């Protein structure tokens, strides 16, 4: 009796929870727990709460307390959505750090971190599932009301349904209808995830006996020959693979579903429904292959392990095709042997899909993949498997740092120099490489940064011995670095040897490669057909109505596109300004390169790899597969082709216009140009044959081009670092950018000047601007940028951020701030 009384007393205890809402608000809110839910609440679980007058959101419990909020009366939570936490406490610490370091709110971090299918909003739309037959008499009164309303209206929001039923807590009812397959819920709703199920077929063990099986065949061949075909097909399939599912058995036997159903009813087959992964792995993928490291790789591996004893982070600087991936595999195997999981980060989805095929050879279904091309169900599936510690290795793009790891022994950041690791919009504007270093530190794990062209920040940290450094200076298998030839476009134009945008040297090298049954990659760092459409008479150029940029012509759609906001309009045939018909296209992108090459080399199999051709789910993987299977002779692409692709028969690389990289107005232009040119060049001659790289430029004597030819990263680094030091740029200084945005340029001017003046009171000459950026209007918002530069050693960046936040908050309390957006960006480049 005493124990029972104590249980009642505990259940009646008044508890409050602090929750993180997926909103850009500066503090967490506190809600009250109904007594009956006291025993169910836990940190990391999702709860449904009302915020504001009527909005419903999924929130994450970040703390449980008995202390009521002092400034306001706490509302009750409406429901608990989970039986167990979906976020662990270390993740919550990580979210807090990201919010503080990148100067955003923890709600914005939550919004980026959680898969969409784990989030809920009151605007979530509910529709009836017209493909499913159900019995309305089996519904309770409230379920019936919702279904009747959905029969009359095509869709309802969660708010509409709450009003219809006259209650706030509608999620359990919607969840029940969803699980019965009666309704579909839009992608914002929390319980959208449903596991994929597949029916597997097993032969009754009685028929493992050859005599019994023979007897069965005799009976079936007389009475039901299609069923006999199904049994025969099963036997053939079961010899080739461990499991046989119903769909592939129907296809292999040609017998139809009714035959399989009859065999199940006769107990010849047993059917078992299982949850299966959407991620393309089966139990047959378990074999692990082996390989032998070269002497140079063995030395590098030993050095990495040695340095890991003293350093938390090691930089592996290895030339292209030096076999860095094989070293990663050995490190992963060693870490797996200790029972600790590994996170393998890659900068691009393009690279992820390519590398996963190689890693599956070694790790089979113990490897998980996570990136933004997955649909919501797949992302939740990976999330839950990581939560359950089912993966030994997770491979993914930058968002993988948000997964709910319970432990991490090693994080590998491949191509660590890539700008794709930086999130630009929306907040948090984090760099996954830097976030990974903090994350590994939380778990007392190690970080390996790998690159043939390291970022100056990482190389600087290794030189000042903050990081370890291991160098790998020879290609795997003794393959030589490619020959590089620089072609002056000016000279070839004078001699009239240019064919469209292709020099005689490039045309000859491509023809030779194709004759040898080899492949070619052409790099042009701009997509579309032509960047500018211009009137020859009055120089009119169509511009985006929302952004301060000219529109790019795309031939496949015959439209002008804005690459910033997505605006499109028909390409004019007559100049809207002067009425002239003399319109011409200036410049060229990948689409035009592909189009003109198809005229010059009509028998060649061409493909293009850029954002336009890789939008659909499997399009990118199909292009890579076709290249590997030699169904493509020449691949034309943007920077996607520069990142880690490894194909045996690619021997010629053509860089169509190197000047578009070299002339970019940015202090990192030379560093980025070297990285891009070296990485693209590294795709050539990776197996056995020495490759050839042709760089077309108007400035063949440019210092960076010479450094690329000589493979002289050190010369680039020391030359650039002198300038960085003189002009106060990273890695000697830290940069924080503030972008101030407003729809009225005059109001924006006053707002930005006010903010800059207030900041100068604290930081003096460290504040630069406000200045208009290169593109000063995007999506109808005008932009002014304020740059703050801080010395690494003599000022506390933590204190500086606190002051900047205070100045922004003070500005937002003034009337002047009305209609403005202030976006801090820490380490913007």
UniProtKB/TrEMBL annotation:
Signal peptide segment: none
List the keywords (alphabetical): ATP-binding, DNA replication, DNA-binding, Helicase, Hydrolase, Isomerase, Metal-binding, Nucleotide-binding, Primosome, Zinc
Where would I find the Helicase ATP-binding domain in this sequence?
305-472
Cofactor mode of binding and number, as noted: Binds 2 zinc ions per subunit.
Record-annotated residues binding Zn(2+) 2?
544, 547, 562, 565
PANTHER family noted in UniProt: PRIMOSOMAL PROTEIN N (PTHR30580)
The name of this protein is Replication restart protein PriA
**Species this protein is from:** Mucilaginibacter litoreus
Gene it is expressed from? priA
């Amino acid at each position: 009796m005493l124990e029972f009384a104590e249980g009642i007393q505990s259940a009646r205890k008044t508890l409050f929870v602090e929750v993180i809402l997926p909103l850009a608000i500066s503090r967490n809110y506190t809600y009250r727990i109904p007594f009956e839910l006291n025993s169910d609440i836990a940190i990391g679980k999702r709860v449904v709460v009302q915020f504001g007058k009527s909005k419903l959101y999924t929130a994450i419990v970040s703390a449980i307390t008995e202390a009521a909020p002092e400034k306001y009366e706490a509302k009750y939570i409406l429901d608990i959505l989970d039986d167990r936490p979906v976020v662990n406490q270390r993740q919550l610490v990580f979210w807090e750090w990201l919010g503080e370091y990148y100067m955003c709110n923890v709600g914005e971090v939550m919004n980026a971190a959680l898969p969409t299918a784990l989030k809920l909003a009151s605007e979530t739309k509910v529709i009836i599932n017209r493909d499913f037959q159900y019995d309305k008499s089996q519904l309770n009164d409230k379920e019936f009301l919702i279904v009747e309303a959905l029969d009359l209206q095509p869709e309802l929001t969660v708010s509409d349904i709450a009003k219809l039923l006259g209650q706030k807590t509608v999620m359990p009812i919607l969840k029940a209808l969803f699980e019965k397959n009666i309704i579909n819920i839009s992608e914002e709703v929390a319980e959208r995830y449903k596991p994929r199920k597949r029916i597997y077929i097993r032969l009754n063990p009685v028929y493992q006996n050859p005599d019994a099986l023979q007897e069965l065949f005799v009976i079936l061949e007389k009475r039901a020959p299609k069923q006999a075909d199904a049994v025969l097909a099963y036997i053939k399939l079961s010899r080739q693979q461990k499991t046989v599912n119903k769909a592939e058995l129907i296809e292999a036997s040609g017998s139809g579903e009714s035959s399989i159903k009859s065999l199940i009813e006769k107990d010849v087959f047993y059917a078992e429904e299982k949850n299966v992964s959407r991620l393309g792995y089966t139990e047959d993928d378990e074999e692990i292959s082996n390989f032998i490291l070269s002497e140079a790789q063995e030395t590098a591996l030993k050095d990495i392990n040695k340095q890991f004893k003293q350093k938390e982070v090691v930089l592996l600087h290895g030339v292209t095709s030096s076999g860095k991936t094989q070293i990663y595999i050995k490190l992963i195997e060693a870490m797996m042997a200790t029972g600790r999981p590994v996170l393998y980060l890659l900068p691009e989805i393009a690279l992820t899909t390519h590398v996963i095929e190689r890693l599956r050879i070694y790790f089979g279904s113990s490897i998980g993949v996570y990136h933004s091309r997955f649909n919501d169900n797949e992302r939740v599936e990976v999330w839950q498997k990581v939560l359950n510690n089912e993966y030994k290795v997770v491979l993914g793009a930058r968002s993988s740092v948000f997964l709910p790891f319970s432990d991490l022994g090693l994080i590998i950041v491949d191509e660590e120099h890539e700008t794709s690791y930086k999130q630009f919009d929306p907040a948090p504007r984090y760099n996954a490489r830097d976030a990974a270093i903090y994350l590994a530190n939380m778990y007392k794990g190690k970080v390996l940064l790998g690159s043939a062209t390291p970022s100056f920040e990482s190389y600087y940290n290794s030189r000042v011995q903050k990081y370890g450094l291991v160098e790998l200076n020879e290609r795997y298998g003794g393959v030589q670095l490619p020959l590089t030839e620089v072609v002056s476009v000016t000279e070839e134009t004078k001699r009239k040897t240019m064919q469209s945008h292709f020099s005689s040297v490039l045309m000859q090298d491509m023809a030779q490669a194709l004759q040898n049954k080899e492949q070619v990659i052409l790099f042009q760092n701009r997509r579309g057909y032509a960047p500018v459409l211009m009137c020859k008479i009055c120089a009119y150029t169509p511009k985006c109505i929302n952004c301060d940029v000219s529109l790019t012509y795309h031939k496949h759609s015959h439209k002008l596109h804005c690459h910033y906001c997505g605006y499109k309009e028909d390409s004019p045939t007559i100049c809207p300004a002067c009425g002239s018909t003399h319109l011409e296209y200036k410049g060229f992108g990948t689409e035009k390169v592909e189009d003109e090459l198809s005229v010059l080399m009509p028998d060649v199999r061409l493909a293009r790899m850029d954002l336009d051709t890789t939008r659909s789910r499997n399009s990118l993987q199909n292009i890579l597969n076709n290249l590997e299977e030699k169904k493509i002779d020449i691949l034309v692409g943007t920077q996607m082709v520069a990142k880690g692709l490894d194909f045996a028969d690619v021997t010629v690389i053509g860089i169509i216009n190197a000047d578009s990289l070299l002339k970019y107005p940015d202090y990192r232009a030379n560093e980025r140009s070297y990285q891009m040119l070296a990485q693209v060049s590294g795709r050539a001659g990776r197996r056995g044959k020495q490759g050839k790289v042709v760089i077309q430029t108007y400035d063949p004597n440019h210092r960076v081009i010479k450094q690329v030819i000589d493979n002289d990263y050190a010369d680039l680094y020391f030359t650039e670092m002198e300038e960085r030091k003189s002009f106060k740029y990273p890695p000697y200084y830290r940069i924080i950018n503030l972008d101030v945005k407003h729809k009225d340029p005059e109001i924006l001017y006053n707002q930005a000047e006010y903010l800059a003046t207030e900041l100068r009171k604290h930081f003096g000459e460290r504040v630069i601007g406000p200045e208009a950026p290169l593109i000063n209007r995007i999506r109808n918002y005008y932009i002014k940028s304020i740059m703050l530069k801080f010395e690494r050693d003599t000022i506390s960046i933590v204190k500086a951020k606190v002051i900047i936040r205070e100045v922004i908050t003070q500005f937002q309390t003034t009337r002047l701030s009305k209609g403005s957006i202030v976006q801090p960006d820490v380490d913007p480049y």
